[in-house]
Amino acid sequence: MPETTSAGRDAAPIEINSELLAHAHVSKAWPFEEARKVLSRLKRIPQPTGSIIFETGYGPSGLPHIGTFGEVARTTMVRHAFRVLTEDKIPTRLICFSDDMDGLRKVPDNIPNKEMVAAHLEKPLTQVPDPFNEYPSFGQHNNARLRNFLDTFGFSYEFLSATQCYTSGRFDATLLRVLEHYEEIRDVILPTLGPERRATYSPFLPISPATGKVLQVPIIDRDLAAGSILYKDPDTGKLTQVSVTGGHCKLQWKADWAMRWAALGVDYEMAGKDLIDSVRLSGRICRILGRQQPEGFNYELFLDENGEKISKSRGNGLTIEEWLSYASPESLALYMYQSPKKAKRLYFDVIPRAVDEYAGHLAAFPKEDQAAKLTNPVWHIHEGSPPEADLPISFALLLNLASASNSEDRSVLWGFIQRYAPKATPETEPLLDELVGYAIRYFHDFVKPSKQYRAPTDQERAALADLDKRLVALPDDVLAEEIQNEVYAVGKEHGFEPLRDWFQALYQVLLGQSQGPRFGSFVQLYGIDNTRSLMARALSGELAAAQVANN
């Protein structure tokens, strides 16, 4: 069943002034650098009569992962930068394209009803039953998962299904050009193939009328007038003629990518670093079809906790839903913005830092001049209009409050928060209250199960006793910086070298973890009395004993 085209929200209007425009044209922020490529493209090719097309591609052979979201988020940032550079006078569109007509090559590891799906291998994804029994096909199920998230985040996009484009005739004219330039396209691809594959390669993959499978078979003959190809059925040996239009064939993916660029008039599409050669080959085919290949750049890949490439079919790394269980979509967008040409781990332990970095950029934004604002990630995340927010407490500190108090009660954490910021309430600080909920979930799932308290060494025991004496002598209204100075002084006087060993000891002995917050801020928030009680429990052996009992 073909999937209809759908769209997210319309792109919001943007306000542009002369100062903004001047800084945008020289900004070093990577979305502006990419947008200037598209602007230069307009000088090299005829002025378009329609919109400038930004595209992202998605292979729905497995459940969508964060890398898929990242490509849409990054492309949206480039599109917005282009709109600023052109004063929003040139219409733009973002197409999110699903290759859901691809044949299913293997059963993904992370789905139910694997045996049922296995019976439909090699069929287009939109002809494979949905193992979750929610949609007419597996392809439509995975498309819906992606679209639901894109809609939740509020992207402005147009969703296109390969199945719909092929079967509706939208690609027919370009498919006939592929047939016309059949040998030229083969000449691009054949040198990249081994001898066996070279002997059977064709840019066209017929859809078997008998089995519905996507066939990789040699093409015996072509009929340009009829717009058809002739092949030998692999099951019956019968010569079969099939039209290349109307969804009776699809293209091998490098030719398919180029055909799509040409048919849709794509001006910009980024791709992973592993596709550099594919971009080059598809670009050559696109030019054979009479169109200039899109602008774009190759981003680095995301890695899982073991440093391996994340994969939809394997289900390693993080899912979109998992990130959003512990942090906001804006923190995820920040992670996508940062260093797109640098390989990064995409696992649960990167979340707390991303949350606090987002909050830090948000707090800094109102104080920055126009040039600095355009290099601030939140300008690009929020399309030029970030909200006002300056959180009094960091996410890392909330996690450590939960860890020290061993509490998963929102009211307990808010009690500590109000010690530091008396006027703050869940109602006046909704973003902070949201972080409290995220912190509790993250603490329960990741911090609490991995806590490993240890008993203090003799040197650490003496230092803790000294710190206790210093804390009791401090006034009730002492500032975090003054507490931090006392902690530093204790570490130095008790011979910790390097000094970070002292802070690591505090985290391991008092919190059961290898790292933690700025300790002075933690004490101010948690309270001197509570901190002294925690140290007393550590010195008495209670914390380490509880660890042994729990294990």
Q: What can you see in these coordinates?
A:
It is a single chain. This protein has 25 helices and 14 strands. By secondary structure, it is α/β, with parallel strands linked by helices. Helix 17 (395-405) packs across helix 19. The chain is elongated and about 95 Å long. The model is unreliable at 1-5 (pLDDT under 50).
Question: Tags for this entry?
Answer:
alpha/beta, 5-stranded mixed sheet, 25 helices, 14 strands, 49% helix, disordered N terminus
Task: Describe the structure concisely for a colleague.
This protein is 49% helix and 9% strand. With 551 residues, the protein is of the alpha/beta class.
Record the SSE blueprint.
Layout: E1 6-7, H1 18-24, H2 30-44, E2 52-58, H3 66-85, E3 92-98, H4 114-118, H5 138-153, E4 158-161, H6 162-168, H7 172-180, H8 182-189, H9 195-200, E5 204-206, E6 219-223, E7 228-232, E8 239-243, E9 249-251, H10 253-264, E10 266-268, E11 271-272, H11 276-288, E12 298-299, E13 302-303, H12 320-326, H13 329-337, E14 344-345, H14 351-364, H15 370-375, H16 377-381, H17 395-405, H18 410-420, H19 430-450, H20 458-472, H21 480-493, H22 500-511, H23 519-526, H24 528-539, H25 542-550
Strands, total number? 14
Termini distance? Answer: 54 Å
> Helicity, in percent?
40-55%
**Subunit arrangement of the protein:** single chain
Mean pLDDT: 91
Query: Which runs of at least 5 residues are low in confidence (pLDDT < 50)?
Result: 1-5
**Helix vs. strand class:** alpha/beta
The number of helices is 25
Query: If you compute it from the alpha carbons, what radius of gyration comes out, rounded to the nearest whole angstrom?
Result: 29 Å
Please report which band the strand proportion falls in: under 5%, 5-15%, 15-25%, 25-35%, 35-45% or over 45%. 5-15%
